[in-house]
Structure formats: C-alpha cells, structure tokens
Amino acid sequence: MRPSARRNTRLIRGIDPEAAFPAGLPWLRYGYRAAAILLAGLLTLIRSAGVPAAVPGSVPSASVTITVHSADGRPVPGAVITVRSLAADARPSAPIKAVMDQINRAFDPDLLVIPVGSTVDFPNSDTVSHQIYSFSPAKRFTLPLYRGNPNPPVRFDQPGVVTLGCNIHDEMVGYLVVTDAQYFGRTDASGSWTADIARGKYRVAVWHPRMNDDANELERELTVAAGDRVTHELRLTKPLRPAPLSAHPHSWDGYR
Amino acid sequence: MKPLAALIAVGMGLTCSAHATDWEVDLDMRLLSSDGQRSYLDGGTGALRYGENQSGLQLGRLRLALDQNIGELWSVHLDASSWGEHDKNPIDLTEAYLLFRPYPFDGLRARIKAGAFYAPISLENRGPGWESPYTLTPSALNTWVGEELRTIGLEGQIDWLGTRTGHLFDVGLTGAVYGWNEPAGVALASQGFMLEDRQTTLFGRVNPTPGLNDPREVFHEIDGRAGVYAGIEGRFLDRLVVRALRYDNRSDPTQQDGVTHIFAWLTTFNSAGARLESGNGWTGIAQWLQGETTISPHSHRLGYPFDAKFLLISKQIGRHTFSARYDRFEVLTHFVTPTGDDYAQYGHAWTLAYLFEPNAHWRFALEWLDVSTESALREAIVPSEELSRERKIEASFRYALGSAVR
C-alpha cells in the first residue's frame, strides 16, 4: 500500500510548479504543494482503508454502504466484504504488494484482504524464529524457520481464505482473504463499510474468521444505479464463535 | 557436577551452530513464614516444601533454559534448575529432549519427543519450566507428577487441527514408551502426597524415609521393562481443554536393584482433567488421578491405592492473577499398618495466591497455603502427631532474563 502512495505523490509532483505558476505568485505555488501533499495523504488513507483508489471515473457510481449484524442484531466489526461484478467483462481489482509482519508472536496485521495475483511479504520482526505454513486449498505453502526477511514474497493466485499458522507457536493465527472482486474492505467499529461503486450488478459476500454461517448462503445480489445512496444489510444467522484468548487482541475481537 | 558440565558443553555447542539459541535465566527468591513440620525434603514428615525451621529467605529456584533449533524440523530443549537444597548436584536437569516437528499436512500434525520430559498430565503447569501461572505451589496431584514422574524415552503425538480448517475443535492422541522410572511410587507409599514446587531433577534424589538419611534416585532402571502411557486431548477452540491418560510403568514388583536394594514399584493410574477459560479472565481447572503402586517383596504383595483431585478457580485482571484451589488426596494400604490404620496418608488443602507480572521480566507473588494431613508414617514416628495442620505464607520475587523472555 505504501509504494502506491509514493507513486501517487511522485505523479502529482511530476508537474513542474515553476512552469505552472509564474514567479509573482509564490503563495499559489506553496498552496499547490500543500494541496498535492494533502491529496497524496488522502489517497494513502483511502487505499489503507481497503477501498480501491481507482474508482472508474467515467462510469457513473453510487455510494454503497454495507452493514453486517450478528444474529442478535449487534454490529459486527472487522468483517470482510467483497463486491464482485456479474458483468461478463469484469476484471478483478489490480494486484497489490502487501506485508504481513510477525510481531510479539502474532501476525501483524492478522487479516489482509488482497486481490487475486497479489504478493505478500512475511517478515519476522521477533527475536524468536517462526516457521509459517498454510494447508488451505487456496494456497498451500511453508516458509522455513527464519528471522528477519530472507524469503521472497508469496504470490496468491486463487481466490479463497488462506489460514496461516506457525509450526512453533500454536497461538499464532492469521488470515488472508484472496478475492477476485472489484471492491472489498472490512467493516468498521459500527459494523459498516462504504464505497463508491460503479453502476451495475454485483454479488456481495461477507466473511469473518469467527463466523459460523456458510459464507455462500449469505451472498446477495446487489444492483447499483447511478447517483443512488444504497444501504444494504447482511445479517448473520448463527452466533459468532468466541474471540480467541490470545494475549494479543485480534482485529476481529471487537464483538464479545 | 556431571549434568552441569554436560549442559554447559551442549549449550556452548548449540550456540555455535547455525540457528541462534533462545535462552532464559530465572532467579526466584522466596520470603516465607511457615508453621509446618520439618519438610520431607529435609528428612521430616511435613507436607510442605519448607517447614517452620526454614522460615525466612530461601532460594525458590534458579533456572537455566536453552532452546535450539537444529535444521528445519528438529530442536533441542534443556531445562536445568538449582533448588537451593542439599541434593546430589547443585544444579541439574529437570527436562532434556529432542523434538521433531514436521509441517502439518492436510490438518494433521505430528510431534515426536525423545529424551526426558513431562507426560501431558498437568493442566496447571503450563508455564516455562513447568511452572504454574496461577499459584507458586502446584496441586498435590501435580506435585507428585513433578516429584516422581518423568518420561525418559520416546513420545509420539498426532493432532488433528480442526480449528485451522474451519471446525470448532482439535483432537490429539499421545503415546509413549519409557524407562528409568521403577522407583516412582516409593515417596507416595511412604510419605503420601505433598504440596511443594520443587521438581525432582533427572539425576536427583528424594528421601522417602523420615529420620533416615537414605536418599533414593527416582529415575532409575531396575527390571529392564519399558513402561507405556496413552492419552487423548480435545480442545474446543482455545477455551476448553479436556485430557485423559492411562499410565502403566509395567514394572516387575518382585524385582529389586542388586546394589541399592531399591524395589521396582509397579505404578498404574488413570488421569483426567479439564481446563475452561472464559473471555474475561476466568479460568477453571479440575483434575483427577487415581491408581495404585505396588511392590511384592518375597511374594508379599504390598499395594497402595491412591487418589488425588483438585479444583482451581482463577481470575486474571490485567497483569494481576488471583487464584483459589482446593485439594483432596489419599493413599490407602491393602494391609493394616502397625498403628492399626488401613491408610498411608490422607488430607486436604486450601491455597490462595496472588501473582503480579508488571512486565516480562518481573513477577511478584504471594501465596497462603493451609494443608491438613493424617499420616500413618508420621504417627508411627511421633505417636501424638497423627493429624497435622501446616500453614505457610510465602512471597516470591522472580526475575527472568534472556532471549526467550518477552
């Protein structure tokens, strides 16, 4: 995410301010720089929230809010939302380069949502060695016992949930949600997620590490018309599993 | 000093190998007041680690631990301690084993241990160095495990990691073959159950006969027959652990060591327990162990059925842990003792403990323990003192240092 933010900053800085603004207007020049930095910061913020920054500008879009509630009606923070286009020519979101660190014997972040084809770097910032594995069908791999960052990034080519563990430290668990959706993100503390979504027909899915429901049964179709403000509610039918007891709170522990 | 020299040599060798070593040194000092009898560790009949004569400042434990990965799938674990007592070696190993841990495959994971280590019995001794995060003193049941049991052999474990494949539980099976434990049971038959945190070291001894300076090696092979155990463990998410284990050391109780005259004690037991943890800091542990230890000198069978159980409730609030435990235990005999009893010992105990860990290095603890026992052996030695109530209050100051400390 950070490299793309740097790219955006470089692009904006690519316009020569000396040429654009004559010497007589220095305040305007500084104003331009401030605006450029502000815009770059905003783009970083948007990307870090998991919303694809490149919303098709030419296609009319609508603001869509998805809320997730538990079976007993309480908001569910940290749920993964994916919105996949049903159009025949729809293409997945562009791959990214992500990082999942290991700090204090925990994956950090403990959950990442990445487009298909993305790569993830798994550095180990702990003083103890870790030995990372996944036997999930979406990606089976092992990273030999290591500290620091000796391994090349791992590429994830198939959509699905990849559960990560450490063969030394059983309490370590992390998740990668690999998606071919065009829009994706995670619900906030109030259990909602909002994005500008281009006009069209979509399939909305929800997933949570502690969910007992079958994710397929919760999928819904969503039609987005231009200019709409759409609010869509997804309600789980089964109670969530208890939050893990690990000394390091997970991002999906908000609901107790 | 042999074990210490071996430990240092192995440690130095490991430090020089490819993967860095994780090490830890802990110093645990105790300040206590006890009204107990002279401890059985000190040649008396008391059930506590420290009798009245030992009130004051004591070395609780000096511990050195080393973990070393060897290649991808192997590792070595060494745990050595000094308990500040007049044992055979000033510092000695409590555990030393080689661990083979291949990668999980399709939700199944195998573990193989070779060396000397604890059988998966205790649900409270889950900390580094087989310590409890709830109390200073383990239950009577697990005190006995630390005193007389150690697997010196080979243990295999296979786990089905259901929670990593979208299920709610994991299941594990364990089996072991071991030797060097024929004297296990002698302390139980003579003294009964104790409540103390000293773990017998691999080359260490216990003194089962009060008044006699007759220390016996606990981990000793007499009859050349291997013992076995098999266990099952179920885990519901990370909230509930349920364990059961069948233990049989398969000793020949007619055998006696030619040099030391130590008998081979045939010790068999069933053990079961559960640990339940809530999401808001509460922990409940219940454990039960029932079995028998037997010798047959000159074809006279002397059997000692035993039974121990406890219930522990603990509440963690931030870095503070408050725990309460109730223990019950008994050792019976199949014959009437000279004092006319058909038991060797029975008793019960209450323990209250407060532990505070301000950071990864320091731990402060305060424990109050009240144990009442009736002991046939004690009555035989001091006829007026059949019933004994012993109390202690003990403060612990522990500092941990090392790459494994976090």
Characterization of this structure:
The complex is a heterodimer of chains A (256) and B (406). With 256 residues, chain A is an alpha+beta fold. Chain A has 2 domains: 2-48; 61-235, Cupredoxins -  blue copper proteins (Immunoglobulin-like). In chain A, 15% of the residues lie in helices and 37% in strands. Chain A has helices spanning 2-13, 17-20, 26-48; strands at 61-69, 80-85, 97-99, 101-102, 107-108, 111-115, 118-121, 130-136, 139-146, 154-156, 160-166, 173-179, 183-186, 192-198, 200-207, 220-224, 229-235. In chain A, strands 6-12-11-8-9 form a 5-stranded mixed beta sheet, with no helix packed on it. In chain A, strands 13-2-15-16 form a 4-stranded antiparallel beta sheet, with no helix packed on it. The longest helix of chain A is centred in the N-terminal third of the chain and has 23 residues, at 26-48. Mean pLDDT of chain A is 80; it is low at 1-30 and 43-57. Chain B is mostly beta strands and 406 residues long. Chain B has one domain (2-401): Beta Barrel (Porin). Helix content of chain B is 8%, strand content 49%. Chain B contains 4 helices and 18 strands. A 16-stranded antiparallel β-barrel of chain B has the order 1-2-3-4-5-6-7-10-11-12-13-14-15-16-17-18. In chain B, strand 12 (266-277) and strand 13 (282-295) form a beta hairpin. The model of chain B is unreliable at 14-18 (pLDDT under 50). The chains are: A alpha+beta (256), B mainly beta (406). At the A-B interface, strand 8 and strand 9 of A face loops of B.
Write the layout of secondary structure elements.
The complex is a heterodimer of chains A (256) and B (406).
Chain A: H1 2-13, H2 17-20, H3 26-48, E1 61-69, E2 80-85, E3 97-99, E4 101-102, E5 107-108, E6 111-115, E7 118-121, E8 130-136, E9 139-146, E10 154-156, E11 160-166, E12 173-179, E13 183-186, E14 192-198, E15 200-207, E16 220-224, E17 229-235
Parallel strand pairs in A: 1-17, 3-7, 6-12
Antiparallel strand pairs in A: 1-14, 2-13, 2-15, 4-5, 7-10, 8-9, 8-11, 11-12, 15-16
Chain B: H1 2-15, E1 21-34, E2 56-70, E3 74-82, E4 92-100, E5 108-117, H2 140-148, E6 151-160, E7 169-179, H3 186-190, E8 205-206, E9 216-217, E10 227-236, E11 240-248, E12 266-277, E13 282-295, E14 302-317, E15 320-332, E16 343-356, E17 362-375, H4 376-381, E18 387-401
Antiparallel strand pairs in B: 1-2, 1-18, 2-3, 3-4, 4-5, 5-6, 6-7, 7-10, 8-9, 10-11, 11-12, 12-13, 13-14, 14-15, 15-16, 16-17, 17-18
